[in-house]
Amino acid sequence: MTDTISAISTAIGEAGIGIVRMSGKDSIEIANKIFKDEKIEKLKDGENRKLIYGHIVDPEKDEIIDEVLIVYMKGPYTYTREDMVEIYCHGGVIPVRRILELTLKYGARLADRGEFTKRAFLNGRLDLSQAEAVIDMINAKTDKSYDVSLNQLEGSLSKEIREMRDILLNMIAHIEVSIDFPDEDIEEVTYEQLEEDAKRVYKKIDNLLSTADRGRILRDGLNTVILGKPNVGKSSLLNAILRENRAIVTDVPGTTRDIIEEYVNIDGIPLKIVDTAGIRDTEDLVEKIGVDRAKEMVDKADLIIAVFDMSEDLSKEDKKIIDIIQNKKSIILLNKTDLPVKLNEKQIRKILPDKKIINTSIVKGIGLDELINSIKDMFYSGEMDIKNEVVITNVRHKNQLLKAKNNIEDGLEAIKLNMPLDCIEVDIRNCWKNLGEISGDTVTEDILDKIFSEFCIGK
Ligand SMILES: Nc1nc2c(ncn2[C@@H]2O[C@H](COP(=O)(O)OP(=O)(O)OP(=O)(O)O)[C@@H](O)[C@H]2O)c(=O)[nH]1
Ligand SMILES: [Mg+2]
């Protein structure tokens, strides 16, 4: 962390401006080697946080590279808490790249992915859950998932974790005093008190975990799989939801042969919608693979939209689909209601009494609103007030919470059995440690590397 890093921090492409930024103690010195301004000439310590107009020049050739604005920000009041310089040049691939190359030539090192944020974390400006929120904000696909990340960046999750760890640490302290000074006149820790504290932590962990499913959906989208026999209108449904001709639609059964995945945001609901090959027994090798893939998708689905064709009798393929969806969260579409009806609707309602069933004509746009509303009702009964709620969106956090939950359960068990205090302490300490990995208080280097490698360069 002693060297100075540099990276292009804006997206590479055609744009109004591009930003190259540096962090580290040599930032100002490197900038001064390549920045020229008619009046001021050099960035100075005193010019902290002042935007200066001038040119980036290649000192060797005395050649102007670009007309820029430059700012020097003195640590520790910066993103990384180190000295930083940002150069605002023209957007586009060439100017940012040339300026980056100059900073590297004059002493900076190319930053790794997420290295600015990693430094912010290591220098104590953010905790780990906040650093992770930064990447989630950048990747957010909907307003809601953005709000959750912003909340996390502001420290909502950190606060919850800190509160739990304080309780646990307090328990550990009491236990240790009781073990170390059994004869002294110190109030000994009681099993009742330990149980009460452990239950408080357990409840908090459980509350957080209960948000994880919804959190994952907010972050990755509701994994929605469209299933049905060939030619019922699955791809037509995908296109209707996306409002574009994404999938090929023909009246030939077996048109779709591979999985088609798209993201769409419907009234704030992030949907990852998957069109599949029609389920049937087939000799066609390619189609067969498609059918197998469709079946695989079912296991991962949060919701299945099963489509049936009203203009045909119930076939053996339809029955297979009914079997597949019996125990899955699903919505039934009885499609092609614009054609003469052959399918016995009562029969379907009888076999699938608990499922939501909607009559649709996808070509005529009938029933789509009802479908969307049903999806909304299923997952967002009422409006979610995300802003004031801590939601677990990150799988890593979920896994740490699950471990911590196990620890505290073991602890509670040990307390109930009146086990020796040092046995109980082990569970409490593990719980404290596992929660600490969420905030980054007890995290190892390889976990850090893994987390920050998911970032983009320049962040
Ligand atoms: N009359 C009528 N035709 C429809 C309706 N929905 C879809 N179709 C037609 O049914 C045919 C098949 O539609 P697709 O969307 O390709 O069906 P699919 O389920 O994706 O078919 P595969 O990919 O072969 O499994 C096309 O000719 C569509 O125009 C509907 O509501 N009414
Ligand atoms: Mg299709």
TrEMBL record:
Gene3D superfamilies, per the entry: P-loop containing nucleotide triphosphate hydrolases, Probable tRNA modification gtpase trme, domain 1, tRNA modification GTPase MnmE domain 2
Signal peptide residue numbers: none
Gene Ontology BP, a term: tRNA wobble uridine modification
Primary location class: cytoplasm
InterPro entries linked: G_TrmE, GTP-bd, GTP-bd_TrmE_N, GTPase_MnmE, MnmE_dom2, MnmE_helical, P-loop_NTPase, Small_GTP-bd
Keywords: Cytoplasm, GTP-binding, Hydrolase, Magnesium, Metal-binding, Nucleotide-binding, Potassium, tRNA processing
GO cellular component, one term: cytosol
The enzyme's E.C. designation: 3.6.-.-
Binding-site residues, GTP: 231-236, 250-256, 275-278
Name of a matching Pfam family: TrmE_N
Record-linked PROSITE patterns: G_TRME
Location of the TrmE-type G domain: 221-380
Record: residues binding (6S)-5-formyl-5,6,7,8-tetrahydrofolate: 21, 86, 125, 459
Residues the record lists as binding K(+): 231, 250, 252, 255
Cofactor notes: Binds 1 potassium ion per subunit.
GO molecular function: GTP binding; GTPase activity; identical protein binding; metal ion binding
List of residues binding Mg(2+): 235, 256
Described function: Exhibits a very high intrinsic GTPase hydrolysis rate. Involved in the addition of a carboxymethylaminomethyl (cmnm) group at the wobble position (U34) of certain tRNAs, forming tRNA-cmnm(5)s(2)U34.
Name of this chain's protein: tRNA modification GTPase MnmE
Designated gene of the protein: mnmE
